[in-house]
Design brief:
about 300 residues, mainly alpha
């Protein structure tokens, strides 16, 4: 048969016994709360959206500079850049805002390795400065009197707050900013302007016989409803409260109104005449949406960076 295995030699007297093998470190138990914390405090959740907003803002501005604002029948085409030689300070201010957006956003979107915080600063500064320049230079807009100026500011704040609420549902900052934006928007609708308020105007238009008047009334009322939607930010953190949708609606609200006015003018009046004024159906709507998006994503990214560590 097989020879027996040799016995291991016994340790010599006084020799230390071999140390036992070190046990492998145990992994800490998996905690579902850790995943919940990471989900409630994501890291740079708008990094891709921010760069996309910068690129779209630069693209809209470049097209606005290259394409004519108006092509009068039998006259020379009018461009944004020709405003730099204008005697009107308001016209030059609008042109400067468009040029600033094209250069700053184009560089911030194109430079590789630029941090999200740096892009957010560029987006917020360009968006806020351009909205301010556009608002001051244009005068009255969609709402009576100075209420349009208040509406633009409210939509920018509302979009920022709802974006924060959509990614950081447990944070108080998103709720407070969204509420501030909603309050400003509602104030714009009840603020007396030219002897009346936008709510009163909408109520009177509802009784109009023309479909255009009723559409304008519905559009105005939807703006007020958007402010009430933003107040859903106070819903429990376990629900999204539709915050992302409210932010998108705030960004597009004014542009939709501009497009609607252009379509109505084309249907009721002269379609060829409307097409000869691209500033009405492209420049203004595209720029307004891009500036509101830059402001919303820029401010939300800066606030979110602080919320990551709190």
């Amino acid at each position: 048969g097989a020879a027996p295995a040799p016995a291991e030699p016994a340790p010599a007297a006084g020799a230390a016994a071999p140390a036992p093998a070190a046990a492998a470190p145990e992994m800490p138990p998996y905690l579902a709360s850790q995943t919940g914390t990471r989900m409630a405090r994501p890291v740079e959740p708008w990094a891709a959206h921010l760069r996309r907003a910068l690129a779209l803002g630069a693209g809209a501005s470049v097209v606005s500079l290259a394409a004519p604002v108006a092509v009068p029948a039998g006259g020379a085409a009018q461009f944004v850049w020709s405003a730099f030689g204008s005697a009107s300070a308001d016209v030059r201010l609008r042109a400067l805002a468009i040029a600033l957006t094209a250069v700053a956003c184009g560089v911030a979107a194109a430079v590789r390795g630029l941090s999200t915080v740096a892009r957010a600063v560029v987006a917020a500064v360009v968006g806020i400065a351009s909205l301010a320049a556009w608002t001051v230079s244009l005068g009255p807009g969609a709402l009576p009197g100075d209420a349009s100026h208040l509406l633009i500011a409210g939509l920018a704040v509302l979009a920022s707050g709802c974006l924060i609420r959509s990614q950081y549902p447990a944070a108080l900052a998103g709720r407070l900013v969204a509420t501030a934006g909603a309050a400003i928007v509602l104030a714009a609708y009840v603020m007396p302007g030219d002897g009346t308020s936008s709510i009163a105007v909408a109520w009177n238009l509802l009784g109009g016989s023309h479909w255009g008047a009723r559409f304008a009334a519905v559009y105005l009322l939807l703006g007020a409803a958007l402010a009430l939607w933003a107040l859903a930010a106070w819903a429990p953190p376990s629900t999204s409260a539709g915050a992302g949708g409210a932010a998108l609606a705030a960004i597009l609200y004014l542009s939709i109104g501009m497009w609607a006015v252009a379509v109505r003018s084309a249907l009721v009046h002269d379609a060829a005449g409307v097409l000869r004024v691209p500033g009405q159906w492209f420049h203004a709507p595209a720029l307004m949406a891009s500036w509101l998006a830059l402001t919303g994503y820029g401010v939300a990214s800066l606030v979110g960076k602080r919320l990551e560590h709190t």
